[in-house]
Predict the structure.
Amino acid sequence: MKEILLCKYGEIVLKGANRRYFEETLCKTLRFRAKHYGNFSITRSQSTLVIEPLDDMADIDGMFETASKVFGIVGISRCAVCEKNMESIADTVREYIPQFLIGKKTFKVEAKRSDKRFPLGSIEIAREIGGVVLESVPKLKVDVHHPEIVVQVEIREFGAYIHAGQFKGAGGMPVGSNGKGLLLLSGGIDSPVAGYMIAKRGVQIEAVHFESFPYTSERAREKVFELAREVAQYAGSFNVHVVSLTHIQEELVKTCEEDYFTLLLRRYMMAIADRLAHKLGCGGLITGESLGQVASQTMQAIGVTDPVATLPVFRPCIGLDKEEIVQVARKIGTFETSIQPYEDCCTVFTPKHPRTRPELAKVLEQERKLDFEALVQEALDGAYVEHIRTEF
Ligand code: ATP
Ligand code: MG
């Protein structure tokens, strides 16, 4: 039996001139992913993308799995295709539909005819196929008002589609339909989630990771690449720019008051990220900050680090509790990697009493002790790039 996928996309974004661009971006992403699962055709039909295997080798399960990680798709139906006559439709329903009805008590059948020449009307098809379902799955009842599952029969030009139940898609907007942003990616729990959340809004990401070798290790860097690969399952392939903060941190320790280390370092991170983002053509920065979570994320502390950036800074986790961030991290598969205990550049040289209500003037006074611009430039000059591919 031939199985295809019907992908539904959201409707709000379909208005006006955006529609074309939106659909093309989505098709491009699906085509790219499809290459890894065999020969598929991907076509549009109303607000649906139809993914059809072109030979027996095509891996429809793999395709289904990957399509459920593509932003812009709200629902995916697995669907059997058969010949357009009642006998063949009934046979397919008997064979294909019971697997979707396991554990269900009520159902109804809905029929649609885009081919109006089909001899039976929608109501007659629904009634007849309802009978077939009742015969094949004992104890099931029809409930036309609140069924647990709807069995759909669609009579199309080239055949009939039969499906039951829609699986949830990744939602959001297609990656690339909403600009490009630079994610500040640490090895923690929050920033991978922030990357996932902004990509869900259609933003194509690049990432910058700060390290402090030899105070941070090779393994800590590997962990960040692993997180990036996990995020890339949703966000698509992207580059991670690795920037060393070692020299800056050593200079800070030598010259500045300990209480201000974290804030000063965060201002350097913002400045470096901002310059890099401009160079890469990004329209904004993204961080995993959540208000009040740690000393450097109070409103005043963010007020001290934010002005360094000339681009807008997006903080998708700002209003989420840690538990809520963890929930997303578990869902997207980054949590287990994030909790591996490797040091981060922020955790080396941490002050005992970080300022939670810093005054900008005092921070600037400390900052002036060093040549800020020269250190930023030096860090940027030493950056290297790791390309992260979506893995299949
Ligand atoms: P996370 O779990 O994302 O590391 P956190 O709660 O540990 O966040 P901080 O360490 O204060 O918080 O970092 C706040 C944000 O700054 C991070 O979410 C991330 O966007 C950025 N950041 C922190 N450390 C790094 C790093 N080493 N490289 C790149 N970005 C970083
Ligand atoms: Mg961190």
